Amino acid sequence: MQLRELGEFRLIERIKSKLSYSHRDIVKGIGDDACVTRIQTGKLLLSTTDTLIEDVHFDLGFISAHDLGKKSLAVNVSDIAAMGGEPRFFLLSLGIPSRISVKFIDQFVSGLSEAAQSFQTYAVGGDTSLSPERFVVSITVLGEALPSHAIYRDSANVGDQIFVTGYLGDSALGLKILKSRTNLSRVEERFRYLTERHNSPVPRVTEGRLIAENRIASAMIDISDGLISDLEHICRESMVGARIWLEKVPLSEAFQKYSKEFTENPTDLPLSGGEDYELLFTVDKFNVGDLERIKTEFQTKVTHIGEIVEKDNGVKVLRDSGQRYTVKKKGFDHFL
User: Does the pLDDT value for residue 51 go beyond 50?
Assistant: First the structure.
């Protein structure tokens, strides 16, 4: 069925039927001029938004509608996780070209609903519009954090140790594999882990919450643009420098096994590839023991990869020999 056969208002009702869940803090959800939600007493409201545009942020030949729905919410939830918060509600806006079928939207919303349930966040409103050419997804997530738990980018200090969750470079390698195979259906099963790391990232909500509740991190950010680029965000806001130990950067078995098939310089992917959606955070040296204590509750590994230094030193990547490694491209930039 095509969208013109359904119409805008029936489409909204169709989406609403798949995303509407009752919650004690939703006073008025989808269907009115604005949503109305209760704010928990004593907590901060966290708000973040991301726009994903076809042929800029995703290629429909490389990702299913279901996975696109999951990823669209996940990348926003990751921002809330990076501040030590919990996602509560979200608003969804879609720009839909006439070529997009109702079946595609159903599958997209199914993936979105699956992600929403796993993150325990609820749809409360949004908008739909005709888009002349490309499919456009814009999601705003509203989250909460206690004032004492919220973590920002601007509080890293000289001497702090730098940690990351999970593995880096898998998403960038997964994208290279997808592009080399022309479309999703041509990807071999042996590469499935890597392509799923690109198409279906897992925001580290549990880890962010534990880090916040235990007041472990001095600064934190999620890795969306690339390790070096996002570390520079922390350093710029905190007015410090950093050094990363190249051999400490965590790489998955799949990355180590297959990366050389798709790039002549695998080392740059975990440093600048982006879209890993892991947490990058700094820890006062006196809190490192506390991190060791709570990391058993993490759903992924955590790795010590560097330290914060004086601002004049900038951000450097060093080999075990002490030689500096130069990254060709620091990370993703929409306008470069």
Answer: yes
**Given CA atoms 196, 202, 207, 208 in this order, what sign does their dihedral have?**
positive
Instruction: Give helix 192-199 / helix 170-180 axis angle, nearest 10°.
Output: 110
Shared domain for 16 and 137, answered yes or no, is yes
Query: 3-class SS at 263?
Result: coil
Closest CA to 320 of 258, 217, 251, 246: 246
- Residue 335 in this model has a pLDDT that exceeds 60: no
In the three-class reduction of DSSP (H, G, I as helix; E, B as strand; rest coil), residue 282 is classed as strand
Length of the chain: 336
Q: Any residues with CB less than 8 A from the CB of 305 and at least 6 apart, and which? A: 162, 163, 164, 244, 245, 248, 249, 250
Contact between 164 and 227 under an 8 Å Cβ cutoff? The reply is yes
pLDDT at 332: 57
How far apart are the C-alpha atoms of 193 and 284, rounded to whole Å? 34
Calculate the average pLDDT of the chain: 92
Contact between residue 134 and residue 57 where contact means Cβ atoms under 8 Å apart: no
Alpha carbon 26 to its chain centroid, in Å, reads: 25
Number of domains in the chain: 2
Q: What is the pLDDT of residues 78-111, one digit of tens each?
A: 999 999 999 999 999 999 999 999 999 999 999 9
* CA dist 223 → 20, 57, 228, 274 (Å): 31, 16, 9, 6
Instruction: Supply the CATH number for residue 312's domain.
Output: 3.90.650.10
Range of the domain at 137: 3-145
Residue 297 reports pLDDT greater than 80: yes
**Gap between the Cα atoms of 163 and 288, Å rounded:** 10
255 plus 318 within the same structural domain: yes
**Span 269-293, mean pLDDT?**
96
